[in-house]
Amino acid sequence: MRRHRAMVVFALLAASAQGLPASAGAAEEIAAPASARQRELFKLLKHDCGSCHGMRLTGGLGPALTPDALKDKVEANLTATILSGRPNTAMPPWQAFISEPEAAWLVSRMRKGVADAR
User: Fold this and answer.
1) Cα(72)–Cα(86) distance, integer angstroms
2) How many CB atoms lie within 10 A of CB 27?
3) pLDDT tens digits, 79-97
4) Residues 14, 21 contacting (CB under 8 angstroms)
5) Are the C-beta atoms of 83 and 100 separated by less than 8 Å?
6) pTM of the shown model
7) To which CATH superfamily is domain 2-15+33-112 assigned?
């Protein structure tokens, strides 16, 4: 729990130190992984994340990951959650399987909607 809080605080401090709002990264375009890796990430999202967040990402054991559910969330916090998990919950860390840029890209796609993911 402390590690997750520290990552959140760090992300917010980094944004404020640059004079940016905490959600400033939302307007930036995130570099997309190669198309083969995109397919792998979407498969991970559908099968692994979907097992808890629902096959349509509308919620289940974990919360919904739809654009509407994520619209008020800070992207850096979502990326940190993917990478580090959430201690004392069912959310595991995925940093062994996904890089930080890939997690950020996946967050940006979830915020736009992934219905077109193959």
Assistant:
1) 19
2) 8
3) 999 999 999 999 999 999 9
4) no
5) yes
6) 0.72
7) Cytochrome c-like domain (1.10.760.10)
